[in-house]
Specification:
Elements lengths: L7 E5 L2 E5 L10 H7 L2 H25 L12 H12 L12 H30 L5 E3 L3 E6 L2 E10 L5 E15 L5 E8 L5 E5 L2 E7 L11 H6 L3 E10 L4 E10 L3 E3 L1 E3 L3 E3 L5 E3 L7 E3 L6
Parallel strand pairs: 4-12
Antiparallel strand pairs: 1-2, 3-5, 4-5, 5-9, 6-7, 6-8, 6-10, 10-11, 13-16, 14-15
Helix pairs in contact: 2-3, 2-4
Length: 294
């Protein structure tokens, strides 16, 4: 009988999946794994690998103290710092390899050290040069009237102080449904939103989907969305002009994040000189939808 494997946690937005009976990471995925670490974890990996490498060679030097000039027997820290100096190719001149064994170990350490520095330099460069989108999504997704029609609304804001270009906005809706054969499945719908695309995205926008006869949300209520475990996924894709690279950002909204009968407050104000002032402190603020003007 095959031994059961421990569950592998995978997070997608605010949803966490536990993969069971799945193979663990392959050693060929090491590069992807290192890049997926956050900065504190990556820094800890660098320090740990550096200390481990120097400790390993310090032990090798300790095996034969006579292989290094002026290395006292049992003086681990002397061997450790000699390894540090060798790895960095500093060479202060006080300690140096004195035997063939010492020269061989030093040669191996310098060779491995060159590879280690090259790999670490590449990883740091990739992590710093990787473009990211600094997009802020509203904490809630709203369902209320807009221009006399029931609409789904959420707000997105560009946190960078440079305008993004060719921004595309998408909203996916997901819910549990029962097929004609009685099987319960999860279905996904791409909702038609407005605006769908903006040539420039400098500040903040409210994205809307009109709930009409063609919408999968037509006839939905607060109770029905809770019963079908409704779920929204908002996405922004755009081009970051400084790095000329495509970036994307996503935000998920379970049915508990839906606020009914509300709209986002106005955050734009036109000043006397013609400039538009945007209040980022009110990005998430909402208010009840007023009665339509007759």
């Amino acid at each position: 009988m095959q031994k059961a494997r421990a569950p592998i946690p995978v997070r997608s937005g605010r949803t966490e999946f536990l993969k069971i009976n799945a193979a663990r990471r392959d050693w060929r995925d090491s590069y992807h794994w290192v890049l997926s670490l956050n900065w504190p974890q990556f820094a800890l990996l660098l320090v740990a690998s550096y200390l481990l490498l120097n400790t390993l060679f310090a032990v090798l030097y300790e095996v034969r103290p006579a292989s290094v000039s002026d290395l006292s027997p049992g003086a681990f820290w002397q061997a450790f710092f000699f390894s540090v100096e060798t790895l960095a190719t500093v060479g202060y001149g006080h300690m140096y390899p004195a035997t063939v064994y010492g020269h061989v170990i030093v040669t191996i350490e310098i060779f491995l050290g060159t590879i280690w520095f090259a790999v670490i330099t590449g990883l740091i460069f990739v992590r710093f040069s990787r473009p990211t989108a600094r997009i802020l999504f509203s904490k809630s997704i709203l369902i209320g009237n807009h221009d006399g029609r029931l609409s789904v609304m959420y707000r997105v804001a560009n946190l960078r102080h440079t305008s993004m270009v060719d921004a595309h906005f998408r909203l996916m809706f997901s819910r549990d449904e029962t097929t004609r054969e009685g099987e319960e499945i999860r279905r996904f719908y791409h909702l038609k939103v407005y605006p769908k695309r903006m040539a420039r995205f400098p500040a903040a926008l409210t994205i809307r989907h009109t709930i009409d006869e063609h919408s999968p949300l037509y006839g939905a209520t607060e109770k029905t969305l809770e019963e079908c475990d409704a779920f929204f996924l908002a996405e922004v894709r755009s081009v970051e002009t400084v790095m000329a690279a495509s970036v994307e950002s996503q935000q998920d909204y379970p049915f508990t994040d839906i606020r009914w009968g509300e709209r986002f407050v106005d955050i734009y104000e036109q000043l006397e000189d013609g400039k538009l002032q945007v209040d980022y402190a009110r990005i998430h603020d909402t208010e009840p939808v007023p009665e339509p003007i007759v």
